[in-house]
Design brief:
The chain is mainly α and 141 residues long.
Length: 141
């Protein structure tokens, strides 16, 4: 819902503009922290910060890094590749280039090398989780 300044038709009220600017700045700092190409992902979201915020919050539960790690531990090559494919697609939608690159490499890796991707993908997930927690609670309270 837009709050229009009736004294200046077509313009948002200054307080609302500040709120929108603040949200955009938080997303920009989050994007920088996780290696997200902000310009690219905003273009994909047609400039809608609310859509991007929803994607950001849905990413970790949807990606299910824990499931990927468990499938690698079990030696379930088919499931690991399937989960890596899903993670790659989700990461590409958020322009998380390093995560997408690692997941893509896991998809093509020989079965005996899948375990080599646990640490780097776990690190990427950890960076994302930490940045998300900091975005939700910037003061650490």
């Amino acid at each position: 819902m837009r709050s229009i300044d009736h004294d200046r038709p077509g313009l948002l009220k200054p307080g609302l503009f500040s709120l929108i600017f603040c949200i955009a700045m938080n997303i920009m700092s989050f994007a920088q922290a996780v290696g997200m190409d902000y310009e690219e992902v905003m273009e994909d979201c047609c400039g809608d910060t609310q859509v991007l915020q929803e994607r950001i919050e849905a990413y970790l539960p949807s990606a299910d890094f824990e499931g990927l790690m468990a499938s690698i531990d079990r030696g379930d090559e088919v499931e690991a590749r399937s989960r890596a494919h899903k993670i790659r697609g989700l990461a590409e939608k958020l322009s998380l280039k390093e995560t997408a690159r690692l997941a893509g490499r896991l998809e093509k890796a020989p079965a005996d090398r899948l375990h080599a991707f646990k640490e780097p993908l776990g690190k990427e997930a950890g960076i994302y989780k930490k940045a998300l927690e900091e975005q939700k609670d910037p003061d650490g309270i």
